[in-house]
Amino acid sequence: MAMKLGELLISENLLTQGQLEEALQAQVIFGGKLGTILIEMGMINEKALGEALKQLLGFPCAQPEDLDSVPQPVIDLIGLDLAEKYKVVPVSLSGRKLTLAMADPRNIQAIDEISFRTGYIILPVLALEVRLYFALEKYYGIKRPMRYIAPPKQVREELDQLHIVRDSERGQSKPAAEEEYLGAPGSEQIRVAAPQPEPAPVLAPPPAA
After folding, report:
1. What domains are defined for the chain?
2. Are 186 and 14 in contact (CB under 8 A)?
3. Counting beta carbons within 10 angstroms of the beta carbon of residue 69, is it exposed (0 to 12), middle (13 to 18) or buried (19 or more)?
4. pLDDT (tens digit, 9 = 90+) per residue, 8-37?
5. What are 177-196's pLDDT values in tens digits?
6. Structure pTM?
7. Which of 11, 27, 29, 65 is deepest in the core (most CB within 10 A)?
8. Cα–Cα distance, 154 to 185 (Å, whole number)
9. Is the CB of residue 41 less than 8 Å from the CB of residue 189?
10. Strands 97-102 and 121-126
């Protein structure tokens, strides 16, 4: 049986079981790929995720710089309709071989159609979902979904609010200030206790006259 991404990350000590369960819950709520969720929640960085997906899928991973400066003549080889339909971005051309960044380089239907339409041999490479959406907007004007515009912190805050509501429904409500998240995209998320206000001092009554 093929290993799943979450299992691989846990086996490589890049993720804990608790983090995986939290990320899977977020995936149900917000959609998108698990890798994207992990980056948004600050549980893993792009480099580690790319290496894990490369190991899992067996395809090389496009680097951020590969997608940042694609020559316009290469972009023009793939029309807007194909780029939008299959969520792909051409990266480079060498002879009759066109390197194509894809969220799923195993998509044979996409590879076959693009090869037929362009006349080139397609060399698929893996691209992280979030990077791919940025490139599609940059080169083709395809607007990113709102989730890729909102900062990762917003995702965590919305999840926290959901947890509070669910705990309240179970009669286990706790104040939102009880805990907070520390961490940034690319670093492991740490949950720490938030500082609580000190109790007001009790004043002794004045002495009797």
Report:
1. 64-147 (3.30.300.160)
2. no
3. exposed
4. 999 998 999 999 999 999 888 888 888 888
5. 333 333 333 333 333 333 34
6. 0.63
7. 27
8. 12
9. yes
10. parallel
